[in-house]
Fold this sequence. Notes:
1 helix, mainly alpha
Amino acid sequence: xxxxxxxxxxxxxxxxxxxxxxxxxxxxxxxxxxxxxxxxxxxxxxxxxxx
Length: 51
């Protein structure tokens, strides 16, 4: 659900954190009751080399 929008939230803002938590909880409920499918993504990364 956060694809493409997560960067718009400020993690230091309590209201934003609450909204993010509520979205995650709703997503978990929708997955639990098989209303939506689960999607998994894995990313392996390393920092860019210093220039």
